[in-house]
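Deviation from plan, reported transparently: calcium ion complex.
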Amino acid sequence: MGLATEVRPGDNCAVLIFVKVASDKHLSAEVYHSRVQDWLYGVRTSAPEKNIQKSIHDEPITEAERLRLVYLMITKPKNEGGAGITAKKGEWENVEAIFPLHDHNFNKAWIKEWTQKYFLDIRDLSVIRDRFGEKIAFYFAFLQSYLMFLCFPAIFGFSCWVLFGNYSPFYAVVNCLWCTIFVEYWKKQEIDLAFQWGVSGINKIQHARPEFKHEGEVKDPITLEPIKTYSPFKRLSRQLLQIPFALLAAILLGTLICTCFSIEIFISEVYSGPLKSILVFLPTVILTVVMPTLTTLLTGFANRLTDLENYETQSAHESSLIQKIFVLNFITSYMPIFLTAFVYVPFAGVLVPYLDIFQLTVRPFAENEKQMTAPKTGFEINPNRLKKQVIYFTVTAQIVNLALEVIVPTLKRRVMRKIKEVKASSASKRGSNSAVAQPNHKVNDLPEEHEFLTRVRAEAELDTYDVTDDLREMVVQFGYLSLFSVVWPLTSVSFFINNWVELRSDALKITMENQRPIPWRADSIGPWLESLGFLTWLGSLTSAAIVYLFYGDDAPETSPGGEARNLKGWALLLTIIMSEHIFLLSRWIVRYALSKIDSPGLQRQRTERYAIRRQYLDEALGQAEADRFAGGGIATGEKMDRRSLEGENHREMSEKEQFEGENFPWMVVLLLALMEDLLTMVQKKRDRSPSAATAPRRRGFGNASRLLRRPSRWDGVLLLGGRRARVWLKRRENKAVNLE
Ligand SMILES: [Ca+2]
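Because the crystal trials were delayed, the predicted structure below was used instead.
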């Protein structure tokens, strides 16, 4: 395979196998091969240099590229030229993990640099890209853009909070608009970064899933290679299982949340017996114990379901899993607030008396009946509950998350290491009579290797890093901003501070808490973009509903004041629908406005395309003619929007549009003349240099042949040769055009 290996003992009877590429030449060949593949799949606009050495010299191999290719060499199936090692699966189940090693000097410098600056710029991002791959770089780019975008709502939210208080309609409108602008901006930014990093359309290069089970094999009609197939109907029927899965998750999690919720209300607002101060924490305890267990269970179930769907490629598998994870997170994160806002506050007066069922459970604690029954007439809804809950989720929960993410794993690791040291020392004390005693590395290691090996053994103990978790965290957080921040406008201030820390703590997490991740490539943040769009849309509905329900709590005559008896269903519905339509309209406007803005990635793309056109035309027509064609007509077709970036179709379309119109006979003449010019020039050129014959010929016809795709009325004309066309035109006595 071209890989060199070294073997050393690891901890716990494990073996460490160090792998590297046997020679620089081999690595260059692999990198070159991958770059050519990128070009063939249209990921790169220009082909790499013919000479391998020169190509590598002009565009040095990044560390991410090298690590990724080595990883692929180890894991690719044997028929694709890899070693076919699949960790923990099949005949390789004894392989625990395959991971690259951290570059500690770089990590230290990197973290130090970050602590000294406030915001990251594009250069910092490209450093991440070169080290950890585009997939992780996209996460940091997203987090960075999100952080920058939070500046405005943080300031605006603060002033709104001071001036208008909570539930301000003005804040709701601006916030909703701001979320829309952010999502649309990020969509554009994502495309732009993909171009700058040369990964646009990377999804076309798929990595096969080793776990994929095929049903049959067919031959590809073009390449004649065997393709493994799986019945799409079977997959669809399994994908449909997602619906009962989502329902099941909603019911399970919903029941849990509802139960805890009602217990909490019962205890805090109805019950007045003994132990009240302790019992108040009961729902929190139930939630913290049962919720993670249930979530883990359901996530495992989602994993199994996605495995069952049996996708051919890694990316399809991943995006299907992400959709399920989003559904789970949506329920666990937002359901409590939804319940408070849309069930408890409007309907509590109706529902609370039914909470009497909990009397049975608290009966042993109560001294007399009076303490357990609700004072039905005097019951009052606690309007602060919603605000308290939002504050809990946007401040407390964020801090807890941060602690769970960074501090707890560090402590855990420290404790584990301590335990291991104690064990090892006691084992060595017991001496040689203990057969299972660990081999003492300190004795066996070569002195010059000892430090390095200790480091590697420590890294082998670490967890693997999954960027999906971090992205999920941010998307869920964005959801609170878009859905509920109208309840408490300071939400974005809290998020701004949290994310500033998050940006650094996540960098720290990758470098210290986890094994170095495989630097995968990606051209976006994946299906999370759709989740963001969905949350923004939903935000336009919930914000409107919340404002309608709660605005002007101080003046009950003018608003429904959040109580069921004052609610008018039709008015609520109208508010929501109006707000949604305004949202759709403003999203359209934002999209249109953003499509007019140029960006560095697009410029680079355009420059590259122009250079390619120039090169071809130069070869075909010579300097002067190339000047004429390379700019001119074609460039007007290059309006930069999403469509044109996603394919070449747009240019063709706009060229077609150019030839539409009443004066088409004139156009025909011009084009036929042009074609003939080209033909003669190509002919001359071919006579002079036989080697350049094929390329210019194809290129020379390029412009004209596209016209052939026009409707049938053109065919008659174009089938004629140049001379006969002239005769035909003369017959029509079109004297206005001078053909000679
Ligand atoms: Ca994080």
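Residues 17 and 572 are 65 Å apart (CA to CA). We consider this an acceptable substitute for the interim report.
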